[in-house]
From TrEMBL:
The keyword Glycoprotein does not apply. It holds the Pfam family Methyltransf_2. Coiled coil: none annotated. It comes from the Eukaryota. Residues 33-173 form the O-methyltransferase C-terminal domain. GO terms for molecular function: O-methyltransferase activity. Transmembrane segments: none annotated. SUPFAM superfamilies: S-adenosyl-L-methionine-dependent methyltransferases. Keywords: Methyltransferase, S-adenosyl-L-methionine, Transferase. This is O-methyltransferase C-terminal domain-containing protein. PROSITE patterns: SAM_OMT_II (PS51683). Gene3D superfamilies: Vaccinia Virus protein VP39.
Length: 181
């Protein structure tokens, strides 16, 4: 299927693969995601306040797959000093994110380049977290992303999906639908 992005950019590459080729574009996209994270209903604090993080074992590992600049990990690490966080994303985003990490969280949060279509390199973590990943991919690719996680899972690990769902066309007022799409 040809998408508007592909036509507008004269490319057959998927969106993320294409912007990763241009560090300035990848940086602008990451900044846009930071702004989305700052909007009232989307703030990472909602993730912190709505899961049993204290119920995790001491020194638990949290892997934020496709985690951009690590906004969720920063919120979690600030509140739970024993939680170890690994933020994974494409190279250009990770390079930028390392420079933005608050100094007091250095060592508690680490960054790792990772393509989520390939096998998960962090084995036996307590939590694998996906935020705003699956809405950009067809079912076929969502299944591939999840299957790449299976070899890393330990018994009792949690896979948390924090996703943005868009209502079917015509289900919300037109002005709201325009904002969402």
């Amino acid at each position: 299927m040809v998408k508007a992005f592909n036509l507008a950019n004269h490319t057959d590459r998927p969106f993320y693969e294409e912007i990763a080729r241009f560090p300035d574009r990848a940086s602008r996209f990451a900044i846009a995601m930071d702004l989305a994270n700052a909007s009232q209903g989307m703030k990472p604090i909602h993730v912190v306040e709505n899961y049993d993080w204290p119920g995790l074992s001491r020194n638990a590992t949290f892997v934020d797959i496709g985690g951009s600049h690590g906004q969720v990990s920063i919120e979690l690490a600030s509140k739970f000093p024993d939680l170890r966080c690994v933020v994974q994303d494409v190279r250009s985003v990770i390079a930028e994110a390392k420079d933005m990490l608050p100094e007091h969280l250095d060592g508690q949060i680490t960054f790792m380049e990772h393509n989520f279509f390939t096998e998960q390199p962090v084995k036996n973590a307590d939590v694998y977290f996906f935020r705003w990943i699956f809405h950009n991919w067809s079912d076929k690719y969502c299944i591939k992303i999840l299957r790449s996680l299976i070899p890393a899972l330990k018994k009792g690990a949690s896979v948390i999906i924090n996703e943005f769902c868009v209502a079917e066309p015509g289900m919300v007022p037109l002005h709201r639908e325009k904002e969402l799409r």
